[in-house]
Amino acid sequence: MVKIGIIGVGTVGASVVNILKDNADVISARAGVDIVVKSGVVKNLNKDRGLDIKLTDNVDDILNDDEIDIVVELMGGVEEPFEIVKKALRNGKAVVTANKALLAYHRYELQEIAQDIAFEYEASVAGGIPIINALRDGLSANHIESIMGIMNGTSNYMLTEMIQNGVNYDDILKKAQDLGYAEADPTFDVGGYDAAHKLLILASIAYGIDAKPEDILIEGIENISKEDVDFASEFGYAIKLLGIAKKDKNMVELRVHASMISKNEMISKIDGVMNGISVVGDKVGETLYYGPGAGGDATASAVIANIIDIARSGKSRPMLGFDRPMEAGLKLKPIEDIKSKYYLRINVSDKKGVLAKVTKIFEENDISVETMLQRPTSKESANLLISTHTAYERDIQKLINSLEALEFVNFKPVMIRIV
Amino acid sequence: MVKIGIIGVGTVGASVVNILKDNADVISARAGVDIVVKSGVVKNLNKDRGLDIKLTDNVDDILNDDEIDIVVELMGGVEEPFEIVKKALRNGKAVVTANKALLAYHRYELQEIAQDIAFEYEASVAGGIPIINALRDGLSANHIESIMGIMNGTSNYMLTEMIQNGVNYDDILKKAQDLGYAEADPTFDVGGYDAAHKLLILASIAYGIDAKPEDILIEGIENISKEDVDFASEFGYAIKLLGIAKKDKNMVELRVHASMISKNEMISKIDGVMNGISVVGDKVGETLYYGPGAGGDATASAVIANIIDIARSGKSRPMLGFDRPMEAGLKLKPIEDIKSKYYLRINVSDKKGVLAKVTKIFEENDISVETMLQRPTSKESANLLISTHTAYERDIQKLINSLEALEFVNFKPVMIRIV
């Protein structure tokens, strides 16, 4: 029998307890042993959670319990769980976590500490989709050329509604909040930070590259409007918030941003709250993994898969998937060196000579225009909707600054990268 | 260092040799050891394969070589490789195979023999997609409700061309043969047998159910015509050759057949030679796995993933994913008890009273019609294109026989199940 202790018994924790009971038949057949929850740590002991496990508000009751084999960390946060899981590992307990923020900051230190004991984290990326499993084990024969994914269900739900039903950003944000998909402060989801945490975890497995959220390009979907959606539809693109990791010679670029992507790509077909991650390996080609990226039961499904694996095999692989230096020459590409095609929406006062001035600024910044549309937004103003050929991020940022400084440009131009 | 011997050095075997060399850097970092091919067994020693490994035409040179840790079986067939891998396992060698036919017939005997030694087979289903990995490990917390997939790239390529470009069956079969996607005798692919082998493997992992190809419903795509494709498009369906495993109370239905499936389903969006498998778990919901189902390098990617896993961990789980009785009450549902909606194309001589007689036969067989279209095919004949409400397989077969017996029905009605 394997005994587990759960730190943080919220939605996911309760699902872990319930599934271990509901599905005990298949779980014990697959694990080869019975798995039981011995106790859980909560902040508020007075809240009724409807669970028949022992609860405590003292984390040491679990960390120092010799009977507990596996600690499941579901409390969230960064530094506090870091201290707790370190202590658990040092006390000889395997750890399973769903905490992407913890890993976005401390995955290499944890890999170091967990050299001889299992530390698993399938649920930290894309909820119920076994993407860690696929990338670390299933594709292990490959150099990974790229990872590109919809890693945040909230923003994908919002973008899907904007595209399919013409809803505007503020209305759909409110609806997402009403449905419980988005938090009262939605920044973490719509601003791209949640996706960035997940991207960093995947990039470590693929490339062994170390980076923190503050090192990489992170933008959200807050500035996307109906005009952008219409332009995208007209030119055969979907708009998605994508996390992208891409190898380019000895560099790896890591970035999260709203993206226009061809409707022919599988990833563009993933709608609503679902997640999907495409991985291109040098030998296998493209594979794609699709499923629910959040929700108590889906996340718990991944947590328990890790528990079953540990119950059966103990530590069967290094935490990040390698224990010799891997892809050692790869460096993080500076943001300004990233190349892309770009879409720009430039709102201008409708005066004579505006178009000539705008195109001149493109020329001066060495950025060549692929398509241009002009659409009136009122009697006095118009949107210039422009897509460019491939350009450097540094040049596009200079271009945007130059455009913004023009007196007839009404606000900072909105830019969406074309993937 | 881990040494492997390869039995059958054709396209996939050569890819295994080349990838182990090309990608030795990441492979050894992930495996924690170096992996080298010691020798390969081929039938014809005189053929130049451009590989610098030792070749032999005697399989015992590998089976009795004490230095070889892992035997990779890529020879194909059923009984001959079965004898060989049994011998390898008994000689203490781990086995990796891509051979779906071997597993379709002997997986339970192999699980028995390989109790203490690793036997892996990721490449046997859907080539480069790590679906065995996902189903056996990633979704292990779930009762599996259904598996539904495009498991044969050849037939999916043909159907895609028929639907998107209006090509007819015979022309696209010839093109598929010219491109090397289809064999001179294409029955194994277009007749559904290849997909059936893969389905049986997945069903064993999901349900622990034992069945042989001859126990289950297997139909192909040979009778699909442009009329069917047009009907499907008109009513919002794609046509796919699907392998389906579905739990229904204490029964599991297993079937491979051409299917009309709503264009809203992710699986309907998978086109060309690609494979894709949707798995619904009771807790995780739907997850889907997409990628190349064939090709030397993609298949070798899966073979090597297994080799890396074994090199690192030895035997880390039971071959089929469970070693206590699992889902023990589940039985294979008899084919005639399967329920579905159906599409029928009935070619009739265009005479008075035909429609009344046809509808009467539907009524007599207790099958209710959902939609009906009549389309002339010549001056004297017409197609009746009919979709039904849910009915039993046994009733639809009786209906088809009754219809075929009518003198004004010109040939056996074509039936496609609606999923």
From TrEMBL, chains A, B:
One Pfam family of this chain: ACT
Q: Where is the active site?
A: K198 (proton donor)
SUPFAM superfamilies tied to this protein:
ACT-like (SSF55021), Glyceraldehyde-3-phosphate dehydrogenase-like, C-terminal domain (SSF55347), NAD(P)-binding Rossmann-fold domains (SSF51735)
Nucleotide-binding keyword on record: no
PROSITE patterns according to UniProt: ACT, HOMOSER_DHGENASE
Write out the residues that bind L-homoserine: E183
Q: Any idea which GO molecular function terms this record carries? A: homoserine dehydrogenase activity; NADP binding
The yes or no answer to whether the keyword Lipoprotein is present is no
Q: Which residues bind NADPH?
A: K100
UniProt pathway annotation? Amino-acid biosynthesis; L-methionine biosynthesis via de novo pathway; L-homoserine from L-aspartate: step 3/3; Amino-acid biosynthesis; L-threonine biosynthesis; L-threonine from L-aspartate: step 3/5
EC annotation from Swiss-Prot or TrEMBL = 1.1.1.3
> Which family, according to UniProt?
Belongs to the homoserine dehydrogenase family.
| Protein's name in the database | Homoserine dehydrogenase
